[in-house]
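STRUCTURE REQUEST FORM
Protein name: ATP synthase gamma chain
Source organism: Cyclobacterium plantarum
Requested output: structure tokens
Priority: standard
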Amino acid sequence: MANLKEVKERINSVSSTQQITKAMKMVAAAKLRRAQDKITQMRPYSQKLSAILNNISSGAEGSTDIIYARERPVSKVLIVAITSDKGLCGAFNSNILKASMLSIQEKYEGKQVTIMPIGKKAFDFFKKKDFPIISDHYQLFEDVSFEPVKKAAEEVMNAFVNGTYDQVQLVYNEFKNVATQLVVQEQFLPIAKLESEEGANQSSQEYIVEPSREYIIKELVPNSLKIQFYKAILDSNASEHGARMTAMSKATDNAAELLKELKLVYNRTRQAAITNEILEIVAGANALEGN
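Status: completed
Returned output:
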């Protein structure tokens, strides 16, 4: 009977856990819808701006008159690692941390690397490492809006212009759908030049620039970079909720399977206990009759 009690307690525990994971799945689904709407509306605008930006920087004189496109020998690197504030979202955070560390060890080996963690998970991970950390913006996900993200982007852009860093890389999860998030390592600064055949065709196109090329460089380029930074945040935010929804859905399904097995064990144990009691009663009755 003690064993029967243990199984019953475990059934109650798993059932409670299943209710929690089911509730978390519903909350993640509601948040995902809002986050998905934001990134799907932002992405076409951001992609078009990036195409124009790359086209301008890939021109004959683009890399010389755009301060954000000037390439220097890479010795000082800033990696912006974008994770979430909370866990329970599968491998969402660990994939970013692994990709960041792999990039440091392989691509930037021997370089002076600084980390800008965005999200508490990245901050908690990198503060235990031996890298300089910019810790002013790791709480951006407390309020996912353009203004706080803009300040973080401006700090990164000014640091690049001042020569504090020679290259800036974003590491984040790109949202594809609820079940799929791709780890992206994207060069933020200097502005990457078009290298593909398609990019070469685009760069050869003649753009009519109004009111002037100087105005475009002064106004459009900084704003485009800020929007690109904001898009990475929105991508990561939507990916987080998608990953959490998937993880909680799997956890709920696993709890249902475990409950099914535990109830079967409980019924078998209970049946065995009842059978033993009947045998004891019959044996006792037979003993009395024998006397």
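Reviewer notes: Confidence is low (pLDDT under 50) at residues 196-200. The chain is about 65% helix and 10% strand.
Form closed.
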